[in-house]
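Technical annex, item 7. During the second reporting period the consortium partners agreed on a shared format for inverse folding records so that results from different sites could be compared directly. Each record opens with the tokenized structure and is followed by the designed sequence. A conforming record, contributed by the partner at site C, is shown below for reference.
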């Protein structure tokens, strides 16, 4: 970790405190007075204050996938939702960095105190005396631990950050402080050798502080300690310390702790685990399962010592722990069982070589391996220097105990029709050692091995009766009912008690460490039996013979119950077949004795996949064969009143129990194809939650059954007519497109992190064991699949769109493969692992390899790949590896790379011309993922421009990269919005359109030259737009824009003007456009916008709204940056830094103003409700607010107000933006109708009015800020005549409101007191009074003058001369109510249009002229 300068200063203070102790050591309590102790306590408090910088922890489930599978398999997905790759918030957030500094400081203090105590001053740790360990550690160490325990045991919001301190204790090494004290060497403990220094903190914790840490577990059942914090942070530390006591070298256990202490600690923790196990909370039970597995590991390692006493001592402990763990995985919820399986797999060694190899590293086993790749604060496990050294015998003992647990669990759900003598004796021995609930021999006729159904579904699927009621919302209204198929599937998945897929995947991971073990043989036997018994009806026979289901008298209820149970069985069968397919090894056909009864491993894979497909098909049939039937209401017979009351009461009680008003299900033979497709998608989503297939299966499956094998097979078919060879299992899997979809989908779930990866030596996580190797191996194979599948129209998005039943549920095979390839590129681009190759080199190497393999899989594309690989690509001041990567991306997106060569379309243009819009969207994702590897912004900008200009080549005659010939397809769709979104991302949104001021002599560059300016922007990470990238018709306008002051047109301005000229502008904007900007369709139009306009009207409207939302979001992001600098940074700056920050904010506001001005003319035609125009006004309001606050900041340095950026912004606001905003206000006011002549809703009109009113208020505040800063300039003697040219006095009303008038109005509108009179007189008096009041209101309305905005130099001069300072502007006549004060809090109070300041309603006609008759002087503005 990078440590800041602040940490260096803090450690220097700690060193000073140590030296002030007269050589006795930090925290030892020696001489030197109390000043050093007080200083150390202050440092301790400061460390915990830094940890508290993180106010709340993001506690996540480390087993859960990073992405949900449904989002990864969605028809449209944005890859930017993945975040920044594997980098966590702890690496990027300032508060997490501060917390890390605080923990490092506390670790340093703890180490110094422990190393300087009397226990560690001898030359060897084995020579310590028992009398020296009576004080229980140093006071400073106890104080640090006590403070941390009080935090995470007191349900603090940041308990995880404080518990992380315990893990940092084990990770701390004195070598990390050498950089802070290079002349001194390692900090503290100079009399100890290197090995002893590494063991200082672990030994101190194990000797003196282990018991308090175990006692922390007592807070879990009571609720004081979060179970997730205990499981992820405290249990790993306690496990390490227990292993240290179990594996410490001889002599240490007899001095620092007793030999019996380890057993006592395990007994104490075991009691606390059993107490948590009986809690009703699932999270506490999961904590108990994790703790039980940790204790079982320590006990197995301790029992592996070659000592008769150890064996006799630990065997009863292991049996008791295993029995309690067996209760967890047999009687508790599925989530608790998954937690136990995850813990069991994590305690295994990471590989079999570390256990059974000739050499053994002491650090080969991780007690709690690191789980990386999580997007929110991943927990770091203790590294090698904090781990206990487990011997090879201990590792074998762990493997044996875990294998026994998994084997006994498998035997509960697997039948054994026949077994050999060795397996039978082993099973009987386990029954003697472990207990009952083991599988027994089947009775009945003797069957051949592998023919019978291998599972006991009654043990893992519940057959409880259905008690489903119609759900209602809190308000009593019924919720929207779910489809019948979804309801049945939810009920079926809820009945599955045992997650067999996770059990089989965990057993496979454990069996990989012992290929010749009994668990491996059991897994092979189960896989082969299931492959041989591939009749789906044999798995459903148990449902028909189940007594609980057959005994139901109601036929409809029995049919429904049987359907749900069958559906649960089919889901289990499909999940298990899915996992067992991944356990197949294509390399052990000759070595595995269990495969002798079959032709080859290919046949096993084919039969398991067919069984999975049959289970899915049967499940979809069951889900689609039921419909909802409303119960018929029976006519009520007339009864007596008493009976009627009793009947109603009885009906209400039955309704509460779910017996009345219950929706019934009935079978139907009329099946809708759309319903079948929807149910198929639901089943696939459920099956995607099972564990991921290992990389060791997916990569060989692609090579053996994928595009490469298909291309080779086609070549062999042309040369040979051997029909028998074509009918083999190998050939059938090659041409089996459902199997190809299965492999591609599993690879997508693996590389995207949407599925759970189960591997030995690690907890369940979402990334492969070696992600870089996975991306490198699968990426080229996936691109080869994409290129090969593009030639078959049925595998593309064209066929998917033409199929009405699958248009919204399924991705085509080409989309799946290209999306998976994009995820591989994204993983390599955002990887944070430290290797010799940069991210750009990794991506370039993988893409080059993918192109080479794709040329073999699709020979028709070889010429296109070779053409683009032979081109020379230039890069402006970019590293060589990024230039090579840009060249590798040229085949995917490019435009006229070689003007002399014939037109050859890139992949994106070819996909657009072939109407393969789904694949074109995935190509945009690919470009966005690869662009994350670039550090040069100019390359990103060039890619964005080429992506937009690819639309110009759609209608050109030329050969595409893949030479596709699918026709023009559907011309009513497009993917323009996705291409523009990618271009905005590559342009850094509004930052790419912002002119950034640089200080004089920035990096020694010549900022006056074009090259120096572009290089300066590149160093700042900003794009530098080159006009030559854009069409030639735009060059004159772009050069004029560049020559203007603060001119920096970027991608957003180009898209905005192109959309404006395509949609046109209203009449009110015609004069504004003709006078302010020379923009025409010729010099501003883009082919991407024109191509969208040529599609159907509904599609163009959708594309237009999407583009407008992107523009609005870009404006908002730029204004947010300006607001942050103005509100958070500028108030704390001074001098030249303040001047640069103010100039920067002016430039940000300038770029936002240009985009708002360019978007305003066409805002009326973007949508029919005026939402986009309202968003533009809202952004303008925010711009005025930021500018007003920024102007007030110039009171600290008024001379900086005369900068060129300020003058340019104010001039642009007066000459361009004000006119556009005024016209936009008028347009929004006149907006009353929407599509089809329908009127806007009152809420929409009210929202528009509120935004307009708030905009006017912010403008008045801005004018007041102008007055204040003008007075300040005159007060300091600075001439401010230029400021008066751009300031305005907005007199929205040419009258003043006095307090006396307000009081008279209140008295006039107050309710009259009622008098006790005759009804006739009262009616007459009321009529007369109401008539008089109506006349009075009409007179008052007529007397109200029309509101105007009066502008001119005289009014400004009068106000300026009358004001001698800031105080004169703030004080007014006490009898006058300022309009600014009345409307100052309008935005905060959210006053509606129908309420006055007192909250009383008023007549809307009184303000009928307030906004429609506002006069604007366009010349002065």
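Designed sequence (site C submission):
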């Amino acid at each position: 970790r990078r440590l800041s300068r602040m940490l260096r200063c803090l450690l220097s203070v700690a060193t000073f405190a140590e030296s002030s102790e007269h050589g006795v050591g930090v925290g030892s309590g020696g001489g030197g007075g109390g000043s050093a102790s007080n200083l150390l306590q202050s440092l301790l408090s400061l460390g915990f204050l830094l940890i508290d910088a993180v106010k709340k922890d993001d506690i996540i489930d480390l087993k859960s996938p990073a992405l949900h599978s449904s989002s990864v398999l969605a028809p449209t997905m944005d890859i930017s939702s993945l975040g920044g790759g594997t980098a966590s918030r702890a690496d990027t957030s300032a508060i997490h960095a501060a917390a890390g500094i605080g923990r490092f400081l506390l670790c340093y203090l703890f180490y110094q105190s422990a190393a300087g105590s009397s226990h560690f001053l001898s030359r060897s740790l084995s020579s310590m005396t028992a009398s020296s360990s009576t004080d229980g550690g140093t006071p400073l160490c106890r104080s640090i631990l006590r403070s941390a325990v009080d935090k995470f045991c007191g349900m603090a919001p940041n308990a995880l950050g404080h518990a992380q301190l315990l893990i940092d204790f084990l990770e701390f090494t004195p070598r990390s402080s050498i950089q802070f004290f290079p002349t001194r060497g390692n900090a503290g403990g100079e009399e100890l050798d290197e090995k002893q220094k590494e063991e200082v903190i672990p030994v101190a914790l194990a000797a003196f502080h282990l018991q308090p840490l175990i006692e922390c577990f007592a807070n879990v059942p009571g609720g004081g300690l979060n179970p997730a914090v205990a499981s992820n942070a405290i249990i790993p530390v306690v496990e390490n310390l227990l292993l240290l006591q179990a594996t410490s070298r001889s002599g240490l256990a007899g001095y620092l702790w007793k030999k019996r202490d380890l057993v006592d600690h395990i007994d104490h923790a075991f009691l606390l685990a059993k107490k948590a196990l009986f809690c009703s909370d699932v999270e506490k039970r999961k904590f108990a399962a994790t703790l039980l597995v940790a204790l079982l590991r320590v006990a197995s390692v301790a029992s592996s010592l070659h000592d008769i006493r150890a064996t006799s001592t630990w065997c009863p402990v292991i049996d008791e722990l295993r029995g309690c763990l067996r209760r967890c995985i047999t009687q508790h919820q599925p989530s608790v069982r998954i937690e136990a399986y995850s813990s069991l797999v994590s305690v295994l060694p990471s590989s079999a070589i570390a256990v059974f190899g000739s050499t053994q590293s002491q650090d080969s086993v991780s007690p709690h391996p690191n789980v990386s790749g999580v997007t929110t604060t991943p927990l770091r496990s203790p590294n090698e220097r904090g781990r206990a050294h487990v011997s090879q015998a201990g590792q074998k003992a762990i493997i044996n105990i875990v294998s026994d647990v998994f084997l006994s669990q498998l035997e509960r759900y697997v039948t054994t029709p026949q077994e050999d003598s060795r397996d039978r004796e082993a099973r009987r021995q386990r029954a003697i050692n472990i207990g009952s609930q083991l599988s027994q021999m089947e009775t009945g006729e003797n069957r051949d091995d592998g023919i019978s159904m291998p599972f006991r579904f009654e043990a893992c699927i519940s057959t409880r009766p259905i008690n489903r009621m119609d759900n209602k919302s809190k308000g009593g209204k019924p919720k929207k009912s779910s489809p019948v198929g979804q309801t049945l599937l939810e009920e079926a998945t809820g009945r599955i008690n045992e997650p067999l897929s996770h059990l089989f995947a965990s057993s496979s991971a454990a069996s990989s460490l012992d290929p010749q073990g009994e668990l491996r043989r059991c897994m092979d036997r189960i896989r082969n039996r299931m492959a041989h018994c591939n009749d789906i009806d044999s798995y459903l026979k148990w449902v028909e013979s189940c007594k609980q289901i057959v005994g139901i008298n109601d036929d409809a209820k029995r049919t429904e119950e049987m359907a749900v149970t069958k559906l649960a069985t089919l889901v289990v069968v499909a999940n298990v077949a899915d996992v067992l397919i991944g356990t197949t090894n294509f390399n052990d056909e000759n070595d595995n004795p269990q495969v002798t009864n079959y032709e080859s491993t290919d046949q096993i894979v084919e039969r398991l996949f067919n069984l999975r497909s049959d289970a899915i098909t049967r499940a979809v049939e069951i889900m689609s064969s039921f419909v909802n039937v409303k119960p018929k209401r029976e006519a009520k017979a007339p009864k007596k009143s008493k009976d009627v009351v009793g009947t109603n009461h009885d009906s209400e009680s039955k309704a509460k129990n779910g017996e009345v008003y219950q929706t019934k299900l009935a079978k139907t033979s009329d099946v809708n194809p759309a319903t079948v497709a929807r149910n198929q998608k639901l089943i696939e989503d459920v099956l995607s939650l099972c564990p991921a297939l290992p990389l060791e299966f997916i990569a060989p499956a692609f090579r053996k059954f994928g595009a490469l094998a298909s291309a080779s097979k086609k070549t062999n078919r042309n040369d040979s007519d051997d029909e028998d060879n074509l009918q083999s299992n190998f050939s059938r899997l090659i041409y089996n497109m459902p199997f190809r979809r299965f492999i591609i989908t599993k690879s997508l779930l693996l590389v995207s992190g949407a599925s759970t990866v189960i591997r030995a030596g690690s907890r369940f996580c979402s990334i492969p064991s070696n992600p870089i190797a996975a991306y490198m191996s699968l990426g080229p194979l996936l691109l080869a699949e994409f290129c090969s599948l593009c030639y078959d129209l049925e595998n593309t998005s064209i066929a998917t769109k033409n199929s009405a039943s699958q248009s919204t549920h399924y991705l085509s095979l080409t989309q799946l493969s290209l999306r998976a390839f994009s995820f591989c590129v994204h993983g390599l681009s955002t990887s944070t692992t430290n290797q010799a190759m940069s991210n750009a080199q990794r991506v370039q190497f993988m893409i080059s390899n993918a192109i080479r393999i794709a040329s073999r899989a699709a020979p028709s594309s070889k010429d296109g790949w070779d053409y683009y690989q032979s081109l020379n690509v230039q890069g402006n001041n970019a590293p060589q590896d990024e230039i090579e990567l840009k060249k590798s991306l040229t085949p995917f997106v490019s435009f006229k790379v070689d003007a002399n060569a014939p037109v050859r379309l890139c992949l994106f243009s070819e996909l657009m011309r072939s109407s393969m819009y789904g694949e074109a969207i995935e190509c945009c994702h690919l470009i966005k993922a690869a662009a994350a590897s670039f550090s040069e912004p100019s390359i990103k900008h060039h890619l964005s421009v080429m992506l937009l200009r690819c639309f110009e080549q759609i209608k050109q005659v030329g050969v595409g990269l893949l030479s596709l010939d699918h026709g023009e397809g559907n011309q009513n769709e497009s993917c323009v919005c996705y291409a523009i979104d990618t271009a905005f991302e590559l342009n850094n949104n509004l930052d790419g359109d912002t002119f950034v001021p640089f200080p004089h002599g920035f990096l020694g560059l010549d900022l006056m030259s074009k090259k120096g300016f572009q290089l300066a922007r590149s160093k700042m990470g900003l794009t530098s737009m080159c006009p030559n990238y854009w069409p030639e018709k735009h060059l004159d306008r772009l050069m004029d824009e560049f020559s203007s002051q603060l001119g920096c047109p970027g991608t957003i301005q180009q898209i905005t003007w192109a959309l404006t000229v395509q949609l046109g502008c209203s009449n009110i904007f015609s004069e504004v456009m003709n006078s302010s900007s020379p923009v025409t369709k010729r010099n501003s139009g883009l082919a991407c916008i024109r191509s969208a306009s040529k599609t159907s009207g509904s599609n163009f409207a959708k594309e237009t709204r999407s583009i407008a939302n992107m523009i609005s979001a870009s404006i908002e992001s730029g204004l947010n940056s300006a607001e942050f600098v103005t509100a958070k940074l500028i108030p704390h700056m001074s001098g030249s830094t303040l001047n640069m920050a103010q100039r920067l904010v002016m430039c940000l506001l300038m770029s936002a103003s240009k985009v708002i001005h360019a978007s305003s003319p066409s805002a009326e035609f973007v949508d029919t409700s005026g939402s986009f125009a309202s968003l533009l006004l809202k952004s303008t309001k925010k711009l005025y607010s930021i500018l007003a606050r920024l102007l007030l900041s110039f009171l600290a340095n008024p001379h900086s107000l005369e900068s060129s950026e300020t003058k340019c912004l104010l001039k642009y606001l007066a000459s361009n933006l004000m006119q556009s905003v005024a016209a936009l206000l008028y347009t929004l006011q006149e907006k009353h109708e929407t599509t089809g002549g329908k009127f806007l809703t009152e809420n929409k009109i009210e929202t528009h009015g509120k935004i307009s009113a708030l905009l006017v208020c912010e403008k008045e505040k801005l004018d007041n800020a102008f007055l204040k800063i003008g007075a300040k300039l005159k007060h300091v003697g600075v001439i401010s005549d230029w400021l008066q040219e751009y300031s305005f006095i907005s007199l929205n009303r040419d009258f003043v409101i006095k307090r006396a008038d307000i009081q008279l109005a209140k008295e006039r509108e107050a309710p009259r007191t009622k008098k006790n009179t005759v009804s006739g007189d009262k009616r007459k008096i009321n009529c007369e009074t109401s008539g008089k009041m109506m006349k009075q209101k009409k007179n008052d309305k007529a007397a109200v003058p029309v509101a105007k905005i009066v502008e001119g130099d005289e009014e400004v001069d009068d106000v300026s001369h009358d004001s001698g300072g800031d105080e004169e502007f703030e004080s007014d006549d006490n009898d006058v109510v300022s309009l600014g004060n009345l409307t100052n809090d309008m935005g905060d109070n959210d006053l509606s249009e129908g309420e006055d300041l007192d909250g009383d309603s008023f007549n809307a006609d009184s303000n009928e002229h307030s906004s429609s008759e506002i006069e604007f002087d366009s010349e002065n503005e």
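The longest strand covers residues 626-629. The chain has a mean pLDDT of 76. All partners now use this format for quarterly exchanges.
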